[in-house]
Amino acid sequence: MADFLQPQTLHAALEARAAHPDYLPIAGCTDVMVGFSHQAQPTGFIDLFGLAEIQGICADDGHISIGAATTYGDILKDPLVYESFPVLSEAIREIGAVQIQERGTLGGNLGTCSPVGDTLPVLLALDAQVHVASSKRGSRLVPINDFIVGYRKNALAEDELIVEIKMPLAPEGTQQYWRKVGTRRAQSISKLMMCVVGRLNGKDVEHIRIALGAVAAAPMRVEKTEAVLAGQALHEETILAAQDTLASEITPIDDVRSSAVYRKEVACNLLGRFLNDLGGA
Amino acid sequence: MKIDFTLNGEQREIDVTPMSRLLDVLRCDFELTGSKEGCGEGECGACTVFVDGKAVNSCLIPVAQMQGREVRTVESLASNEMLSDVQQALIKFGGTQCGICTPGIAMMASAALEAEPNASRARMRELMAGNLCRCTGYQLIIDAVISAAEARRRHG
Amino acid sequence: MTKPGHSFVGHSVNRVDGHAKVSGRAIYVDDISMPGMLHGRTVRSKVAHGTLKDIVFDAAFDWSDITTVTAKDITGPNFVALMEEDQPALVPMGGKIMHHDEPVALICGPDKSKVDAAMAHIDQQVDELPAVLSIDESRAANTLLYGDDNIFKAYTLEKGEGLDEAFAAADHIVEGEYFTGAQEQMYIETQGMIAHWQDESLHITGSMQCPYYIHNAMKSLFGLEDEAVVISQAVTGGGFGGKEEYPSMLAAHVALLAKKAGAPVKIIYDRSEDVAATTKRHPCLVKHRLGLNAHGEIVAADVDITFDGGAYVTLSPVVLSRGVLHSIGPYKCPTLRVVGRMMATNTPPHGAYRGFGAPQTTFAYERQIDKAARVLGMDPVEFRLRNRLNLGDETATGQILKNSVASEKVVREVMAQAEKEPPNDICMPKAVQDVKRGRGFALYYHGAGFTGSGEDRLKGRVAVAVNKQGEFEVRSASTDIGQGAFTIFTQIAATTLGVDVANVKVVQPNTKMVPDSGPTVASRTCMVVGGIVEQAANGLKEKLQAYGESKGLDCGDVLALAEAHAKDVGELAFETTYKSPPGIHFDDQTYRGDAYPCYGWAACLVDVAVDPDTYEVTVERCIHAVDVGKAVHPIIVKGQIEGGTMQALGWALWESVLYKNGKVMNPSMTDCIIPTAMEAPELETIIVEEPYPHGPHGAKGVGEIPMDGPAAAVANALQDALGKSFDVVPMLPETIAEVLKGGPA
Predict the structure, then answer these.
(1) Are C191 and C207 in contact (CB under 8 A)?
(2) Which of C676, C698, C675 is nearest to C687 (CA)?
(3) Average pLDDT per consecutive 10 residues, chain C (745 residues; last block may be shorter)
(4) Residue A37 contacts C where some CB pair is shorter than 8 Å
(5) How many angstroms away from the CA of A269 is the closest CA of chain C?
């Protein structure tokens, strides 16, 4: 029978993690439990759901920090998050439905690191940092772009746990756009997600982050596309150039949920829409 | 592994494999067969129960996580044969047909009415989106839940 | 207590099963446990076509508490009896595997997880054969699966003479090709069954639509007499056709396992097995040609229909028949030819699904009718009204419509509703700018009851009885699968007997207790079986009154008579058999005559909004007027219409079953999606009542008709919104994007 550890403090959790690097840390289990009995079982589990020290939302030092074990339901109820990062609230509202949101956690989404993890493009576009900790080596802040490594693969070392996610508050005038294209409106796996965060100075693009999900092995920022826009005046030609670059920068596939052709076309359409909106904002 | 938890108001203890699904433990060990399995992957909501007052899919919960928590199932909605307002409305407005999704619907609707008693129809559809029904087209379910909400408002 | 003479018909009394269902107390098959019960699993083929050489059970695995069954354990004829004896219960050694996920062996044991683990220790040795995976490949007949042409069944329907001349003389010709894909019923309760043997007799309980189909199949498989097989229905969590024929297969499996293991055996499919292996709606290709004259009338029709039947015959010939019979729609057409064929392929057999062939051909003709109106520059609604069948008109089979036609009424009702403000809180598209909107319409009809002389052959029987306790019982094999059969039977019987609904109980179908009222299919339960219930209740009432007179009792109080009879004499039952209404004749050979005793009529209007960036479609409005003759229980009828409407909208826009090499690639609720409450529009449902003189209180069928038309209304609305032709179901955003780019539709 698999071992099941329920540490009551973060310290105990980190100790357990260090002692059992082969154990799977779990929280809301909305991913782990799907098809559980048909998969190879880890030798043990470290249960982090409800661990108070890594729950909750706070604002400090120009950041908003969300504890890794905070459920989506609790994040949705927080006005601070909605006011500062409406795209994060919108993305979370479209994850599964209420029953999933009451269990799923932000840390869980980062831990699983699926190409269709719905919050990941948002965290990428918001320049989030992942606060991870180890009992022996202390804690470190990993920029989200470095944290997401590949297909269901993240930068978490085998003695580390995710503690919290920190997002810098954006300067005045920053616009945020989000769109999940799912197979349906709720309870859906994404065909495509896009998050754009940008700010203009006059007509010129002063800040731009474009991140997508379900278009490559892992959620990604499209830095070449961003480079086409950065510092440029936002008009029709720049938008077209950005769309062109985007089409070659992403590598979507055909699967049971959608086609590569559709994903690419819709990604370009949405980018055009968001950039036009940014220009008109 | 021994798990202590409150089930429908009673303190219970059970010795089980920690990763057993809460749904199986409820149905097999406690013979509470009101919670149904439609998909086993958190899509259909037929297994919806309350854990510490929150509506969740019992097919996605390892029972070990219930240690010290309070679990309520559809069997607890009615008190002494008296159906709850939501249950009565589901009958009256045609919100149940084949009935297999109904326990989950009744649970989620009860949670939704507690959380957002003034929800619009559109919002109620969103709150109920984790419960699939193949019989009704949802219209009569939403009618039932909205009418229960209105009745609660009328009776203060 | 209600006075005699009170009618419960037309009133929405509380559902008889409502309390049990909302409280979680209703007992479905998976809620049943028996002492010593074992859990079974089905070993399934991993190729679409091949010869089964051997099944190898890993010698290193501990099989001591696992019972295994292969075809060798079948002593009788190895077929699941239905229409043809072609589908084995288990593929025999040396026999042909005809589709992916075909049952080849069975196992069971006391520990569910060990049984699951054992599945990985069973190997199949197979010589793979070239597989036939599409309608085109089947028609090419390079690999033969059935007969010398792969055609399970073909029908030709003709009317009038000189079809070529009629087309030559036509002012306009509208031509189109339509493909509709497979659809999963996706009842929320997966298939499940329990069997046990007792003193050489077989007892089966489970989720099902048709207890006597299973009864028949088990008698044949095990060589048993009528009384030695007892089939009882557990509360059933949805069917929609999916639990019409397939449960006989599952019953065979649990019965085989229970026999060999000597203990009760239960099999409950998990969702992936259910989606991968059980029947779905038939994919269908329709080539449809209409000739029109300058006055805007249809003068000729030439229709070619090909269904994909899958690997075995099952009920496919009947599906084909209904598809053919509905392929011209509720329109006048003097000269026509319809050719239909059902092809064999190496996909899991397609089978019954609400509408039974009609939704596929309705999609084609209602697209054609819309295009015809466009060609003529006519309003699509006006064009339909001009060409619709009316009282006294002749259908495609030459049937003269003598009564109960609501073709105009349903259209007028829908158009009147469309004039009104839309409901509050309609479903809105996510996009706010550049949304493309369109409106589509469809008009259609659906024959109620079995085709042609089917009901005469079937001779459905129902008994209404006073049991020993003095309670009234309705005894029929018609199952309540959520559609409310038990409630409407209660209403009809109580009204006829003149007692309260609380005094009437519908017996849970069990072949030992109830006569064969026929299968629960074909929109026949209320119209046909409800009629037999009414007659049987009448017969019982007369017998009770005769008894009362003989005893000098008050014959006005039927309840008191029943109690007196139960006390003094005991049980009293009155059984009666269905008789077709006079003047209904159909020739099965020529396909001429009265195809159905009557038709339901329906019109649907759909407003769509298409997202300019993602091509996602939002159904903003859906108005559906359906003629049901008489709504015995208005809320149940509304529930039937709305459930069917949503399944049709789902089929049109979201639902697809994906196959690769004959295997279902999306066997889960996550990937084989059905709509949630957020996809569903605020349904505007209008019940139209054009009574059928021979139905109980005027009632006719309602189960299937709402499934037929909405998909075409959606496609018509998309054409209105986007100016392109959408001729494939489902119309996924990917398909729409492709059509807009001018690629293959």
Answers:
(1) yes
(2) C698
(3) 73 97 98 98 98 98 98 97 95 98 98 96 98 98 98 97 98 98 98 97 98 98 98 98 98 98 98 98 98 98 98 97 98 98 98 98 98 97 98 97 97 98 87 95 95 90 97 98 98 97 97 97 94 98 97 94 96 96 89 95 98 98 98 98 98 98 98 98 98 96 97 98 98 97 67
(4) yes
(5) 5
Listed in sequence order, the residues at least 6 apart from A38 whose beta carbon sits closer than 8 Å to its beta carbon are none
Please indicate if any CB of chain A lies within 8 Å of the CB of C110. Answer: no
B111 vs A: CB within 8 A: yes
Question: In whole angstroms, what is the distance from residue C348 CA to residue C277 CA?
Answer: 6
**pLDDT above 90 (res B15):** yes
Structure confidence at residue C171 (pLDDT): 98
Give the model's pLDDT for residue C452.
86
Say yes or no for a CB contact (<8 Å) between C615 and A266.
yes
Helix (H) or strand (E) holding C180: strand C172-180
Q: Which chain C residues have a beta carbon less than 8 Å from that of B88?
A: 22
- Encoded tokens for A121: 């493009």
**C-alpha–C-alpha distance, residues A32 and A106, integer Å:** 14
- What is the pLDDT, as a whole number, of residue C3? 52
Flag if A37 and C678 touch (Cβ within 8 Å). no
- From the list A184, A256, A270, the residue facing C613 with the nearest CB is A270
C18-27+454-577: which CATH architecture? 2-Layer Sandwich (3.30)
Contact C614 A270 (CB under 8 A): yes
Closest residue on chain B to C636 (Cα): B94
Query: Is any Cβ of chain C less than 8 angstroms from the Cβ of A93?
Result: no
Residue type, C446: H
Per-residue pLDDT of B45-99, as tens digits, reads: 999 999 999 999 999 999 999 999 999 999 999 988 899 999 999 999 999 999 9
What CATH code would you report for C284-391+406-451+589-740?
A: 3.30.365.10
Q: pLDDT digit string (tens) for A233-277? A: 999 999 999 999 999 999 999 999 999 999 999 999 999 999 999
CB-CB neighbors (< 8 A) of B41 in chain A = 34-35
CB atoms within 10 A of CB B115: 15
Concatenated DSSP letters for C201-234?
EEEEEES-S-HHHHHHHHHHHHT--GGGEEEEEP
Q: Is the peptide bond before C211 cis (omega within 30 degrees of 0)?
A: no
**Residue C77 near residue C220, CB atoms below 8 Å:** yes
Q: All domains of chain A, ordered by start, with CATH?
A: 3-168 (3.30.465.10), 175-280 (3.30.390.50)
Residue corresponding to tokens 């699509």: C380
Residues of B in contact with A36 (CB under 8 A): 19, 21
CA distances from C24 to A27, A89, B35, C153 (A): 29, 35, 7, 45
What are the extents of the domains in chain B?
Answer: 2-76, 85-154
List the domain boundaries for chain C.
Answer: 18-27+454-577, 32-129+188-238+243-277, 284-391+406-451+589-740
Task: Please give the pLDDT value at position B100.
Answer: 98
% of chain A beyond a pLDDT of 70: 100
Ramachandran quadrant class, C361 (left: phi over 0; alpha: psi -120 to 50; beta: rest): alpha
Partner-chain residue, chosen from B21, B48, B130, that has the shortest CB–CB distance to A96? B130
The CATH label, of 3.90.1170.50, 3.30.2350.10, 3.90.1150.10, 3.10.20.30, for the domain at C32-129+188-238+243-277 is: 3.90.1170.50
Question: For the domain bounded by B2-76, which CATH number is listed?
Answer: 3.10.20.30
Fold: same for C18-27+454-577 and C32-129+188-238+243-277: no
Q: Which residues from B are below 8 Å from A94, CB to CB?
A: none
A:C CB pairs within 8 Å: 57
What topology is assigned to B85-154 in CATH? DNA polymerase; domain 1 (1.10.150)
Q: What is the pLDDT at residue C1?
A: 42
Nearest by CB to B62, which of A29, A96, A97?
Answer: A29
How confident is the model over A266-277, as pLDDT tens digits?
Answer: 999 999 999 999
Would you state the pLDDT for residue C5? 66
**Interchain contact B19–A (C-beta under 8 A):** yes
